[in-house]
Amino acid sequence: MLIEGFENAPVVAGEELLALPGFWAAYLMWLSRTQEYDPVPEWFRVDGADADAAFDVLRDEDQWPVFRIPFAGDHTAMVLGCNIPEDPGTEYFITHPEWGRHGRLATVGGQVAGPGLSWRELHHIARTPDLNAPGVHAEHARLLLLLPTLGDQDMPEDAADILGDALAQVGLPATQAPSLAEALLADHPLWEPAEWTLPAASPLSGSQEPFHGILHCDESMSPRCGTHLAQGITREQSDRLAHALGTWAAT
Prior knowledge:
Strand order of the largest sheet: 1-2-3-4-5
Number of domains: 1
Helix content: 25-40%
Number of helices: 7
Shape: globular
Number of strands: 7
Order of helices and strands: EHHEEEEHHHHEEH
Largest sheet: 5 strands, mixed
Radius of gyration: 18 Å
């Protein structure tokens, strides 16, 4: 069993798919496509056939690939291709062995929901792999896999440079990576950039003590709008999650 709650789905480990020639073209091109900007597989140094073949594997109804992104405190971000016939989509969530249910981040396709991560959280998760857990450990691949969940109106000045470096590591030429990085960060095709804030108090499960450190999102389409990322967890579990996301450090 790769994911609790999906025991009856044909879920398979997807990490080896990252080596497919057309993987990143198939995974990312849609995210930057607009009327003015139309990326092509050749930018990723592959042809259309490679990109189409990778897309077919990602959308295989008989094998739903999951990409595991383990990070601090035994947490794991999951990217799951829910390849339901006639209604495929991608689910993004966080799991922990002590939680009763997953912390939902975003849904692409199907019932769209997002954003799921601020840039601060995305960048921190990418840089803090748990090397003892199975999954994707390379920083650039972790960043790119979780990129579709991003929606943040307060981006740091170096975000495009960091993303451009990640794209270069998956094969984009140095002349192309910066412009694609800018396009990927400019306008998400499914939701607006959000404001992420640390609430003064966020009680869970009737607790009177505030839960600190977990960002809230102001975008109404986000699973994290006005609610805690992982419902029903304890104060200690929430503190560990906040540390793992890089949004709170105890003093």
